[in-house]
Amino acid sequence: MHLLIPAAGRGQRMGSDRNKLLLPLLGKPLLAWTLLAAEASTSIKWIAIVGQEIDFPDFKAILEELNLKTPVCLVQGGKTRQESVYQGLEALPETAKQVLIHDGARCLVTKELFDRCSEALMTCQGLIAAVPVKDTIKIVDDNGEVKDTPDRRQMWAAQTPQGFQVELLKSCHRQGKVLGWEVTDDAALFERCQLPVTIVEGEETNLKLTTKVDLAIAEFILQQRFG
Ligand SMILES: Nc1ccn([C@@H]2O[C@H](COP(=O)(O)OP(=O)(O)OP(=O)(O)O)[C@@H](O)[C@H]2O)c(=O)n1
Ligand SMILES: C[C@](O)(CO)[C@H](O)COP(=O)(O)O
Question: Pathway involvement (predicted)?
Fold first, then answer.
């Protein structure tokens, strides 16, 4: 299985002075934990980290330190996550028929989740890891007034990995580019093209490290796992 790791963000919500994936977390850069989970999976055979050129020296240093068996290449990212994934897709080898996409920022992912997604992708066109929402969700208008309370039983929080047949996802991305669609995940492009997206049970601990509090939670979880 081929894996793309979008890692070209700036970490603005983290309030950090550099890419949050380079921040230390229990003695290793955040991105190193994501890579180690991919390396530990039995299905991932090729990895591309999609990043900004300014971060490449740090990414190379991480790769040197980890000395992974899985081949890893670096791909130039774009201004948005959507653009970064597009560039990553263009950089896939021609032999790649299926692809998993996993945010570098979701560094608590497990090897089991990677393998579950790889296996499920053998029998579907597109999938996302997701978990049922635990909170009651409100639809709110621009004035801060609650307009609706959707049925929670139908609501799932999208995570990554997200997995797709490569040619289908490429054509969704191209269509999105032509029509100016702006989305926050790849499944949304698939949905807009009326292609089916299947749910794979995600993990409650598979957080996207977005703000400083997430760093503290992640450190606690990693300490429980590996400490
Ligand atoms: N132009 C971008 C923006 C984001 N990402 C990646 O997409 C993932 C999810 O994005 P997010 O958590 O929003 O990361 P940032 O964009 O870094 O955060 P922020 O929005 O707070 O700046 C991250 O692994 C991030 O590196 C990317 O590859 N290219
Ligand atoms: C892809 C994703 O992680 C699924 O939850 C999420 O949509 C990324 O969104 P962000 O807006 O870039 O944080």
Answer: Isoprenoid biosynthesis; isopentenyl diphosphate biosynthesis via DXP pathway; isopentenyl diphosphate from 1-deoxy-D-xylulose 5-phosphate: step 2/6
CA distance linking residue 14 with residue 21, whole number of Å = 10
Which atom of ligand 1 is nearest the CA belonging to 80? 1
**SS3 state of residue 70:** coil
Ligand 1, residues at Cβ distance < 6 Å: 6-14, 20-21, 50, 77-81, 84, 103-105, 208, 210
- On the question of pLDDT at 223 being above 90, the answer is yes
Q: For 91-211, where are the alpha helices, taking DSSP H only?
A: 111-120, 166-179, 186-192
76 alpha carbon, closest ligand? 1
Residue 26 — pLDDT band, cuts 50, 70, 90? very high
Q: Both tokens of residue 224? A: 């429980």
DSSP assigned state of 137: P
Smallest CA separation from ligand 2 atom 4, residue? 159
* One-letter amino acid of 61: A
Q: What is the pTM of this model?
A: 0.97
Task: Using alpha carbons, select from 121, 212, 198 the residue that is nearest to residue 158.
Answer: 198
- For 12-23, how does the pLDDT look when each residue is reduced to its tens digit (9 = 90+)? 999 998 999 999
